[in-house]
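Section 5: illustrative case.
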């Protein structure tokens, strides 16, 4: 089979095209492109079918697991594919590890080291119990996230653009430092004992619930990440589509009740807005996939992220 690889402007990316076996898969084609170009490894490549002139539909993206023949549309001898370079990629696990390692490392720096001397505070620093518990809580949270990244989540996408590492690290590392600065500050005023216990209590319950939500999501896919998107069932998923985000937001609320800083509440609001945006998209996708037509199940009526509001 002869495969012609063109750019979106129609320029030939591989001069003379590629000759592949009739039984070749899209993955074989990606390997062949990589061999010829050296630079474009498979996860950097986005291959689509050429669009018919005038059509407004999204182009068909070639699935690496499928045979090339499935995309040939009658002519099994020739195939033209459109190539797009997605740029340098990193694995999702690397991306998540980089994001979470920052706050896990930076927060204790503010607790253990005399950083406030650099900000002009020369006196002795008294550490309140709530600041110590906040350190344990924070580190547990980010350690849990790293463990979940490596041992729980079954991602559907292998990689993410390298640029996302810088964007996401900027978000997590700067918010982590911002909150750590205020919670560990020498002039920090602790909340009452009862408020602290209620806050951390709510937060811990929500962290455990969040972990259980991630286990339920994991069980929707096979170990190799196959299985696509399923209807999440059980526990809080019976009420809300993104129960993992709900519990994530409430665990930050618990942390903020216990520590009470403006920085912590700002982070919670920003995180809630980001997750709400994602939750709306996930809810829409599940409703579209499970529309109750042609034998497909119908997505049940559920809240999106924050019952009883949304
Ligand atoms: N504080 C913050 O700013 C913030 C922001 C975002 C997330 N988080 C935390 O990080 C956690 C992970 O975030 P995330 O956005 O990666 O979570 P997510 O997309 O909701 O889900 C985690 C894993 O479950 C899979 N999954 C989700 N819905 C599924 C379905 N219906 N069927 C099959 N598999 C499904 C996802 O697959 P895919 O690989 O296909 O997506 C992913 O591997 C969150 O739950 C939250 O605790 C915190």
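Designed sequence:
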């Amino acid at each position: 089979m002869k495969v012609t690889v063109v750019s979106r402007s129609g320029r030939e990316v591989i001069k003379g095209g590629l000759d592949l076996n009739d039984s070749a898969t899209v993955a074989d084609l990606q390997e062949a492109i990589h061999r010829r170009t050296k630079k474009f490894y498979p996860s950097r490549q986005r291959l689509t079918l050429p669009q018919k002139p005038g059509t407004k539909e999204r182009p068909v993206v070639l699935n690496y697991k499928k045979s090339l023949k499935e995309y040939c549309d009658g002519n099994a001898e020739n195939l033209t594919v459109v190539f797009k370079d997605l740029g340098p990629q990193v694995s999702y696990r690397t991306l998540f590890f980089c994001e979470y390692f920052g706050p896990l490392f930076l927060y204790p720096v503010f607790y253990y080291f005399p950083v406030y001397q650099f900000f002009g505070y020369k006196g002795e620093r008294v550490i309140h119990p709530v600041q110590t518990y906040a350190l344990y809580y924070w580190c547990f949270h980010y350690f849990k996230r790293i463990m979940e990244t490596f041992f729980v989540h079954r991602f559907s996408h292998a990689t993410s653009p390298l640029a996302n590492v810088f964007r996401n690290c900027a978000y997590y590392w700067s918010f982590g430092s911002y909150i750590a600065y205020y919670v560990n500050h020498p002039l920090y005023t602790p909340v009452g004992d009862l408020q602290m216990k209620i806050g951390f209590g709510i937060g811990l319950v929500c962290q455990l619930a969040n972990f259980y939500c991630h286990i339920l999501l994991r069980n929707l896919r096979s170990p190799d990440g196959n299985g696509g998107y399923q209807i999440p069932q059980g526990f809080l998923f019976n009420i809300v589509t993104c129960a993992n985000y709900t519990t994530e937001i409430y665990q930050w609320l618990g942390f903020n009740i216990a520590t009470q800083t403006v920085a912590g509440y700002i982070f919670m609001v920003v995180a809630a807005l980001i997750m709400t945006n994602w939750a709306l998209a996930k809810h829409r996708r599940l409703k579209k996939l499970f529309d109750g037509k042609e034998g497909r199940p119908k997505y049940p009526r559920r809240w999106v992220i924050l019952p009883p509001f949304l």
